[in-house]
Amino acid sequence: MRLLGEALSQTALDVLKYAFLALLFLFLARVMRVVILELRTPVLAGATQGAAPATAGRSAKPGARLRIVEPAARKGETYPLNEELTVGRGGGCGVVIPDDQFVSTVHARLFRRGSDLFVEDLGSRNGTFVNGQQIQAATRLKRGDRVQFGETVGEVLR
Amino acid sequence: MTTTTAHRNTELRLGLLSVGITAFGYVLVQLPDKSDIPADLWFFVSIFVGIYVVAHMAVRQFAPYADPSLLPLAAFLNGIGFVTISRLDPDLARTQVGWMAAGVGAFVATLVAVRRVRTLERFRYSFLLLGLLALLMPLIPGIGKTINGARLWVGIGPINFQPGEAAKVLLVIFFAAYLVDKRELLATGTRRLGRLVLPDPKYLGPLLLCWAVSILVMVQQKDLGSSLLFFAVFGAMLYAATERAAYLIAAFVLFVGGAGIAYNLFDHVRDRVSTWIDPWVVAQGKGFQVVQSWFAFGTGGASGTGFGRGNPQLIPNAPTDFVFSAIGEELGLFGTVAILAAILLFVGSGFRIALQADRPFPKLFAAGLTTIIGVQTFVIIGGVTRVIPLTGITLPFISYGGSSLVANFVILGLLLRISDENAQVRGASRGRRASPGMIA
Predict the structure, then answer these.
(1) Cβ contacts (< 8 Å) between B437 and chain A: which residues?
(2) B 334-363 → A contacts, CB under 8 A
(3) How many CB pairs under 8 A join A and B?
(4) In 3D, which of B223, B252, B235, B149 has the Cα closest to residue B390?
(5) Could you read off the pLDDT tens digit of each residue along chain A, which spans 158 residues?
(6) How far is CA B17 from each of CA B10, B68, B324, rounded to the nearest angstrom?
(7) Rounded to whole angstroms, how far apart are CA atoms A158 and A64?
(8) The dihedral formed by the CA atoms of A69, A72, A74 and A78, expressed in degrees to the nearest 10
(9) What's the predicted TM-score (pTM) here?
(10) Residue ranges of A 105-124 with Cβ closer than 8 A to chain B
């Protein structure tokens, strides 16, 4: 009996050993996920910093704006469309949408090339839509186009 | 702001998991001997949890935008190290808890005192002076002490510590600040020497002097691990600042030259090399610890003997230099791979913080601090697995050792400070642009 008990407890200790090792890798997998999420948030600092001072000095073409039409709570908020406008849940974005869970931290950007206005998805989880069509690449916007990020919809005015 | 709380909540969740792993490991260690859960478990768990709750609250308060992965990784490594030490030597483990508290104290103090990384840049020469002083302190008669053949200790009253650990951080501050100023001058050559184009010696001089002093002092104190660390960190920082591979080659050549001279001058260096090449001929003598380390890894196999069921106490210096071998015996290949992966993730996060910094000083500083952790890991793990000759140095956050633990916590605090600043700079620069024209 003692021998059997001994063998059982050895097995139990082995099981605990593997459980412990599994826990180590569970922790590492969790950290990995956090790191990957961090990496997916694009570092816009380098890309946008150069453009920022230029726009500040020059007066942007007046008129082009993005007006929120949905959700009702934010309806009517208007943002000027200069060289670049970022949209996302993150605090650093030009348009911050903190309460829409379908919007990524940095979801999309609207930018200007010459006199044309474009919208580009920045690897968001749920995509960016123009007039109900999901965009695959930077897409030109015309007046009256409806741009959707998550559950938030904006209208282009110019 | 939502990203802030999200980051901190992630940190809390991961931190709780690593504290839980530590407690689980602590139970496992006690099981084989007594087969019941030790009474002092909850006391210990509460201290460990308390220490990391303090650290976490300090980050929430003083660096709310900082990277969420670094603190939990440190807790993970620290916890596994603690369990291994308590399994090897319960008395050391109790002291280690004290050092952990001191380390987290230093961590909080770093976050509170260093509100802007830029402040450090301004006092570069003070830090150089302090760093060199810290390196020289063990040589001062009266307070300097020799322990295990290396004169790197300072004893004041009952407390012994290694000022060299502080010197690492202090000199990296100086190097980063100096290189930011002079990197363009160092990257372009003006003096021609045969086919080589060298930068002006005026700008190279202070670097070489600082380098030479630290190496000489290290050799004088018979601390080969640290001198190797200094070489590698400074070489890497020169390369990062100038983007000139020539500096890497130069550092390597200097290192090989220095190693050759040291080999011819010092017996202990020759011993280290000969036991590296063949430890078995001196298996009962100078090669004993390396041979025991190999036996430990071999006994451990793939999944280890399990906590408390091996004999890692047979390895000399198991709680300090050979802690990785002790983990290898009881947790096996899987456990050691987990340790390596955790350190790799830590180093990866450190370099990511360096890449995200948009000003040169924090960038170089973060790269330098991260290199300390990475190189230190390579030197000691390479040593105990016989990839390179063994040089005694601590495994970051895991080994027993007060000075090194406190220094690592300061490094952690500085990295979090830089990461927090990065996030704020990014947020602010975008916020500024959006606000003036906003028609709300």
Answers:
(1) 60, 80, 82
(2) 334-335, 338, 341-342, 345, 348-349, 352, 355-356, 358
(3) 138
(4) B223
(5) 455 556 668 888 889 999 999 999 999 999 999 998 888 765 443 333 333 333 333 333 456 788 888 887 788 788 887 778 888 887 778 888 887 888 888 888 888 877 778 888 888 888 888 888 888 878 888 888 888 888 888 888 87
(6) 11, 14, 22
(7) 4
(8) 20
(9) 0.76
(10) 105
Could you give the CA distance from residue B90 to residue B196 in angstroms, rounded to a whole number? 58
d(CA A31, CA B8): 13
d(CA B230, CA B236): 10
Residues of A whose CB is below 8 A from B24: 20, 23
Question: Long-range pairs for B239-246 at CB < 8 Å and ≥24 separation?
Answer: B240/B363, B240/B364, B240/B367, B240/B368, B241/B179, B241/B180, B241/B183, B241/B186, B241/B187, B241/B360, B241/B364, B242/B179, B242/B183, B242/B186, B242/B187, B243/B187, B244/B186, B244/B187
What lies within 8 Å, CB to CB, of B292 at 6+ separation is B314, B315, B316, B322, B325
> Which residues of A are less than 8 Å from B351 in CB distance?
none
